[in-house]
Amino acid sequence: MSDKLIYQGVSTPHDGILRLPEPPPWRQFTDEARRERGMKYHPRTEEIELVNAALYLRRPLLVTGKPGTGKSSLAY
């Protein structure tokens, strides 16, 4: 396989993550940025109930929808 690839599909760890360029400034992963992103989303009562049911039952919850409907914000 090419040594240019970071993920090579083998079961051994890789060390190529340091070769990646810095993420763009609009893509922040700080705790503050995550909180702000989650605070912009206002879930409906039904969504709150579904998330809590998944948590109480310790089951995964598949969230689907069109782009921009708040799936990622719900996850935050």
Molecular structure report:
- By secondary structure, the protein is mostly helical.
- Helices cover 36% and strands 0% of the residues.
- It contains three helices and no strands.
- The chain is extended and about 50 Å long.
- The model has no long low-confidence stretch (mean pLDDT 76).
In short:
With 76 residues, the chain is an all-alpha fold. It has helices spanning 31-39, 45-57, 71-75.
Question: Could you give the topology of this structure?
Answer:
Layout: H1 31-39, H2 45-57, H3 71-75
What are its keywords?
mainly alpha
Task: Give the % helix.
Answer: 25-40%
Mean pLDDT: 76
| Main β sheet profile | none
Q: Could you give the distance between the termini? A: 36 Å
What count of helical segments does DSSP give? 3
H-E string: HHH
Indicate the low-confidence ranges by residue numbers: none
Portion in strands: under 5%
Tell me the structural class.
mainly alpha
Taken from the alpha-carbon principal axes, the silhouette is extended
Strand elements, count: 0
- Radius of gyration from CA coordinates: 18 Å
